[in-house]
Amino acid sequence: MLLLVEPFARCDEASISLLNGLMRQMAGEGATLLILADDSANLGSLCDTIHTLSQGRIVETHTPQDERQADLPFKIPVRLEARVALVNPGDILYVTTGQGQTYLQTVEGRLPAQFTLTELEGRLARSGFFRAHRGYLVNLQHVKEVIPYTRNSFSLILDDDGETEIPLSKSAARELRELLDY
Fold this sequence. Notes:
2 domains; 5-stranded antiparallel beta sheet; 14 strands
């Protein structure tokens, strides 16, 4: 086992490339490398798993594959008559269901989706969407306010021109409070 602390500190590109090659060679020969670094920028091509520590505890674990996948462009396909439109998740205010159909609500209007609300929840999770209620998935980037009406009744106000109001269930309100730390 080889423990490396800040192996790329004060290195130029040529040195980083040389160290990368040596570390890959050692790993290929069966050595276990434990690399401790404040900056994970050069570790993606070397590491199988990256653990982020805070105050001596692991707070995040991911693979470089996860990072590459998260950087891919991502769109939601919507069938419109004889064509397929690709909707940017950032343009979606919320997703809802009605009469057996799922709809994407954007500033431009409502679009029928080919996926269920649950399927869209999985696809949109990395884009900041949150299940506010049984029938609503909300883009948190468009939420302007959380309004409590009673002890168990809440609504979300969106930042669109009409200040759309979305119901927020009691359990979702608790989860949102923990997520946003308010």
